[in-house]
Specification:
The chain is built from 4 helices and 5 strands; from the N terminus they run βααααββββ. By secondary structure, it is α+β, with helices and mostly antiparallel strands. Strand 4 and strand 5 form a beta hairpin.
Length: 158
């Protein structure tokens, strides 16, 4: 039996992740307290932590760290896909771009698209899936992060 990324029996396998398949990752409201706690701990730059300086800065207000935004995407990806998928690991992110600032109170919606899939030549029973993900700020109608990455997924038959 294959387990999902969260340890439950998997129901989504390599064979299900065909090019063109799309996943709605749901929505999240950016919480001011969480956003600032993350910045204080992991990315304490003035435009993420200091209201006074940020108000005179290029974005007019404190913005979320891009790494916080990436972590929101990751949580949504786990909840919507990896919690069901026979995911083995990820060989890495190929591209990640922060395309617009994120502010406290923004409502973000996530999406994931399957771009390519190929069977592993070195690990029988696994396939590599190339994915594109994004978070969009529903309020402003702009993507705030876009990325391309790969994941390893077990074959149903293995």
């Amino acid at each position: 039996m294959h387990l999902s990324g969260t340890g439950t029996p998997a129901e989504l396998f390599y064979e299900d992740l065909t090019p063109g398949r799309e996943f709605d990752l749901g929505r999240v409201l950016v919480d001011d307290t969480d956003m600032r706690r993350f910045a204080d701990r992991f990315d304490p730059q003035w435009y993420h932590t200091d209201d006074g300086l940020a108000s005179d800065g290029p974005f007019g207000n404190v913005t979320a760290s891009g790494w916080y935004t990436a972590s929101l995407f990751m949580r949504m990806y786990v909840d919507a896909v990896l919690s069901k998928a026979a995911a083995e690991a990820s060989p890495g992110v190929e591209e990640m771009r922060w395309t617009a600032p994120v502010y406290a109170g923004d409502r973000l919606s996530g999406r994931l698209s399957v771009l390519e899939q190929s069977l592993s030549r070195t690990r029988p029973g696994l396939g590599t899936v190339k994915l594109a993900g994004a978070l969009r700020c529903d309020t402003r109608g702009v993507d705030v992060i876009r990325m391309r990455f790969r994941g390893w997924f077990a074959l149903r038959s293995s």
